[in-house]
Design a protein that fits this description.
The chain has one helix and 23 strands. By secondary structure, the protein is mostly beta strands.
């Protein structure tokens, strides 16, 4: 059993299992996520404080299409089974993309389901998430990386009902620079351009039923988390950005879930520096139609 402060993990994703009253914490669990990949692990808790694990849920075979940059696993229940959406660096062309894995258990093992990443083959993509619309149609929402296009994009693309491949062309939902809270940065690889990051999208509904998107970027080189909302309630938007970030203290790539007691929570990793990153859990509330970090009676 370990405390959450002892877990080195990026890109936390919590699956709330109502059958067992347990929380399953997935994430980028390799000690060095920037290099050769080991796989993904899961931690299990009843209170979000003390966790059993790690338990291995994915280990690649020798023929797997990637061997490095194993990032951001999300586990979704869909049609009675469990599907993991995760980022991998492809062996064949050196570009990142989101692939789909499958298991009939939250404990795995998760095995390849799609034939390689389902995001566009010639794009640098990451952090794909599953969204099922009101008609029951599955979509993948993902990031088109700033490393390829400078101004990172959030995109959506239809998925086949078996989640094995995409349908049609990707649709750009918005660019990172469209949010009033993001700032540009320079990078040594691209010294003559301004870069804006899109990272870690996660879609959810507010208590009033609005379709919201949590996503991450940077403010003056500091990792931050913001929210956009769909004005139509549909995944294709249009999407309107909140003026201020939800979290700006060197943390991001989060998701939203509700505890067994009904408290809406934000989880993200902070600080954004390996090997110091840890998952944290933050209470949320809605005030005048906006989602904000909940303060206690002392204002903390």
């Amino acid at each position: 059993m370990v405390k959450k402060e002892e877990i080195q993990l990026r890109d936390p994703f919590v699956f709330v299992d109502n059958e067992t009253n347990k929380y399953y914490l997935f994430g980028s669990t390799d000690p060095n996520v920037w290099g050769e990949g080991i796989g993904f692990d899961v931690y299990i808790s009843e209170d979000l404080e003390c966790w059993d694990g790690p338990f291995p849920v994915f280990r690649p075979s020798d023929t797997f299409y990637s061997k490095e940059n194993f990032w951001a696993p999300e586990v979704h229940e869909y049609n009675g089974n469990y599907y993991m959406f995760a980022t991998f660096l492809r062996k064949d062309n050196g570009k990142r993309g989101t692939g789909v894995l499958y298991s009939n258990s939250l404990m795995g093992p998760f095995l390849p389901h799609s034939e390689g990443p389902v995001t566009p083959e010639d794009w640098y993509c990451l952090d794909g998430t599953l969204h099922v619309d009101g008609a029951g149609e599955p979509w993948i929402v993902f990031c088109h990386e700033w490393v390829q296009i400078a101004d990172g994009e959030l995109c959506a693309q239809r998925l086949s009902t078996d989640l094995k491949h995409t349908i049609g062309e990707p649709v750009i939902l918005f660019k990172a620079s469209e949010a009033p809270w993001t700032t540009a940065f320079k990078h040594r690889r691209f010294p003559n351009r301004n870069n804006y990051v899109t990272d870690g999208p996660y879609l959810f509904h507010s208590q009033s039923g609005e379709l919201m998107m949590l996503w991450a970027s940077f403010i003056d080189h500091v990792y931050a988390q913001g929210i956009a909302r769909s004005t139509t309630g549909q995944v294709l938007g249009p999407w309107v950005q909140e003026d201020e970030p939800l979290f700006r203290n060197d943390g991001g790539h989060g998701m939203v879930f509700s505890t067994f007691e009904g408290q809406r929570m934000l989880t993200l990793h902070t600080p954004n520096k390996t090997p110091l990153e840890r998952p944290i859990f933050i209470r949320l509330e809605e005030l005048n139609g906006k989602i904000i970090v909940r303060r206690d009676k002392d204002g903390n």
